[in-house]
């Protein structure tokens, strides 16, 4: 008579264990999803900050005698750098100060003003090597003496 409820009790315990495992797996999956959403949100913020920095850089005055350099809007955290590639073309990039995500635009220098070239917007660096791209964007490891502050290119 005492064994009649043992099977039912075993089933209830098994259901509780399976429910616990399912709940734990759901919680782990939710934690991973939250991290992915946070990463995506940061990427979107970095993209729009880079886009804003690029547009801001187009409106700045760039010394005609300077072949390369950066300007920074410290209030908004934008950095825009210009790299002359030839007499007719230069490469402008923009990014947020805290981010390495940069957007690029081919431009023509007309005195101290920049004129965007048609179809010149690109989301990757078109220069031949990673070193040239990092130099053009002034992306140096923290504390690197060759960074923009040491070179005196920031405003």
Whole-number count of domains: 1
How many runs of DSSP E, i.e. beta strands? 5
- Determine the structural class based on helices, strands and strand pairing: alpha+beta
Taking all Cα atoms into account, the compactness measure Rg is 27 Å
Gap between N and C termini, in Å? 89 Å
pLDDT averaged residue by residue: 82
| Number of separate helices | 3
Portion of residues within helices: 40-55%
Q: What overall form do the CA principal axes indicate?
A: rod-shaped
Major β-sheet strand ordering: 1-2-3-4-5
Uncertain stretches of 5 or more adjacent residues: 140-155
Order of helices and strands: HEEEEEHH
Sheet with most strands: 5 strands, antiparallel
Share of β-strand residues: 25-35%
Quick gist of this model?
The protein is of the alpha+beta class.
Structure characterization notes:
This protein has helices spanning 6-59, 130-137, 148-151, and strands at 68-73, 78-84, 90-96, 102-110, 113-122. With 155 residues, the protein is an alpha+beta fold. The chain has one domain. The longest helix is centred in the first third of the chain and has 54 residues, at 6-59. The radius of gyration is 27 Å and the shape is rod-shaped. The termini are far apart. Mean pLDDT is 82; it is low at 140-155.
């Amino acid at each position: 008579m005492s064994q009649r409820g043992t099977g039912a009790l075993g089933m209830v315990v098994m259901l509780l264990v399976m429910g616990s495992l399912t709940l734990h797996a759901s919680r782990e999956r939710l934690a991973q999803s939250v991290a992915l959403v946070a990463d995506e949100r940061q990427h979107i913020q970095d993209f729009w900050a880079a886009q804003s920095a690029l547009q801001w850089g187009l409106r700045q005055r760039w010394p005609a005698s300077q072949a390369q350099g950066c300007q920074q809007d410290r209030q908004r955290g934008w950095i825009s750098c210009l790299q002359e590639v030839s007499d007719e073309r230069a490469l402008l990039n923009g990014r947020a100060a805290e981010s390495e995500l940069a957007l690029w635009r081919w431009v023509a220098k007309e005195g101290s003003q920049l004129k965007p070239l048609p179809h010149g917007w690109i989301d990757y660096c078109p220069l031949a090597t990673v070193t040239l791209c990092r130099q053009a964007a002034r992306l140096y490891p923290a504390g690197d003496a060759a960074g923009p502050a040491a070179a005196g290119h920031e405003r």
